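Customer escalation, tier 2.

The customer says the design service returned an amino acid string that "doesn't look like it belongs to this structure." They asked us to rerun it and document both sides in this ticket. The original structure tokens are below, unchanged.
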């Protein structure tokens, strides 16, 4: 009989990935995945960039490269982090990864032994929970409210919990709730972190996708002790198929991530890095992101307005200022998984919220994505969802 490592007992398939198999049918209105809108991918421009790479450096593009990543792309990322996040860094403090999901996997391997504690927002990103599980930590959930993580609760937990090795947060347009931390909370968070000196993983896949309000500084830009590890990605501002993300961290920490990369994959794709760097040099990334924000902002507005109109008063939901997601809390007696089956009969899909809580519970919640459906489908789908909820009220 085949015997597996103990860690495999903790590993399960992503509920979202399994659901996406069902929602691939063209007649399903899917609010399930966190998928960017494919009509926004710059296909023609990327073809031109790819052609230029092959003509200028084709053999280099098809060869192995350094673990750290393609130098020109790391320069571009450093420049963009200063412009967009007010993070003063340089190419030597950036490691290119195969999507920011790989950065999450490395984070667990760098910081966590079995039984160590990782603090997370409650709820938090399912992909991070799954990535961290392979190292068999203990998850401690930090309570949240409409403004995100509650700092007084974080302070209490750090004062009373042993073996806290890492804190994972998404301060901007959080997955799954869409919530964003205020400047006051960011400053308080860094004050607490500096007191306890615990490493922080700041996951920022959605930060550039703000539809309204002022951009807020990244935690990494407020980091004076080198405790914050910043994870970025091109998946939401360019295209996820290139599988390019990055880690920005101080020298000692980044060196450990570099060792992980050498052991796991040697490097991110050379050709993806070179084509992306060439595209950024040839075309206007800011202009492209602005177009994405306009489309997603309209879709967010349509979804929120339709929920206000179609959902019963007993439902609460978030009104995000950016990102890809909104979050619904149903009446406590209602089970989102049961509702999901009834909605699939109406050709509408969403993700039940319980899987976003590492320690379970909260079965009356759900996550909705608005980036990948046209506006008329959003209205149709939310109307059907509202009908299904009303049919199951007590």
């Amino acid at each position: 009989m085949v015997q597996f490592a103990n860690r495999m007992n903790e590993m399960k398939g992503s509920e979202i990935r399994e659901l996406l198999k069902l929602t691939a049918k063209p007649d399903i209105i899917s609010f399930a995945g966190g998928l960017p809108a494919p009509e926004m991918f710059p296909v023609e421009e990327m073809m031109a960039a790819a052609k230029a790479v092959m003509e200028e450096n084709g053999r280099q593009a098809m060869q192995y490269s350094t673990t750290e990543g393609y130098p020109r792309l790391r320069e571009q990322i450093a420049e963009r982090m200063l412009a967009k996040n007010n993070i003063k860094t340089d190419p030597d403090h950036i490691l290119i990864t195969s999507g920011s999901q790989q950065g999450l996997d490395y984070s667990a391997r760098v910081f966590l032994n079995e039984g160590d504690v990782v603090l997370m927002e409650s709820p938090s990103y399912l992909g991070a929970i799954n990535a961290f599980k392979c190292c068999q930590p203990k998850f401690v959930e930090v309570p949240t409210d409409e403004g995100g993580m509650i700092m007084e609760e974080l302070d209490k937990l750090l004062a009373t919990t042993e073996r806290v090795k890492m804190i994972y947060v998404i301060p901007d347009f959080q997955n799954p709730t869409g919530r964003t931390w205020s400047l006051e909370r960011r400053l308080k968070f860094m004050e607490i972190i500096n007191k306890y000196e615990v490493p922080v993983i700041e996951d920022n896949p959605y930060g550039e996708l703000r539809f309204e309000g002022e951009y807020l500084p990244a935690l990494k830009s407020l980091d004076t002790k080198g405790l914050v590890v910043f994870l970025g990605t091109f998946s939401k501002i360019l295209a996820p198929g290139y599988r390019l993300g990055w880690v920005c961290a101080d020298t000692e920490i980044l060196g450990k991530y570099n060792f992980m990369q050498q052991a796991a994959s040697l490097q991110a794709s050379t050709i993806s890095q070179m084509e992306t760097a060439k595209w950024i040099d040839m075309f206007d990334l800011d202009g492209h992101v602005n177009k994405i924000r306009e489309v997603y902002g309209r879709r967010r507005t349509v979804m929120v307005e339709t929920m206000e109109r179609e959902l019963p008063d007993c439902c609460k939901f978030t009104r995000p200022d950016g990102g890809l997601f909104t979050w619904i809390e149903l009446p406590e007696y209602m089970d989102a998984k049961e509702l999901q089956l009834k909605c699939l009969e109406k050709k509408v899909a969403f993700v039940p919220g319980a899987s976003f809580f590492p320690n379970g519970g909260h079965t009356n919640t759900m996550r909705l994505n608005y980036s990948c459906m046209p506006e008329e489908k959003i209205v149709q789908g939310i109307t059907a969802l509202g009908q299904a909820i009303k049919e199951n009220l007590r």
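Tier 2 assessment: The sequence is consistent with the input. Residues 285-310 form the longest helix (26 residues). The mean pLDDT is 94. Sent an explanation to the customer and offered a walkthrough call.
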